[in-house]
């Protein structure tokens, strides 16, 4: 569980699938290339029961109440619900994505 003042940063490399993105689910081949770009996720705990998402490069900011998200995902399949509950629990059920400077 994350504590007040702690934060988590993860990143993933960029990629582009030039051909066959959906075909791979049917056992076919696809052509993918890496990009010189990365996606970053910055997570910090919050005490106000809100989940916030900030995508400054595309000018999108959203926020949700944790209780609303919990209700929304309660109707998903068992494995989806467990995954969402585990995610929230790992961040103390209250996470916040920080605003950009």
UniProtKB/TrEMBL annotation:
One of its GO terms (biological process) is carbohydrate metabolic process. Residues 7-45 form the Galactokinase N-terminal domain. Pfam families: GalKase_gal_bdg (PF10509). InterPro entries: GalKase_N, Mev_gal_kin, Ribosomal_Su5_D2-typ_SF, Ribsml_uS5_D2-typ_fold_subgr. Gene3D superfamilies: 3.30.230.10. One of its GO terms (cellular component) is cytosol. This is MVK.
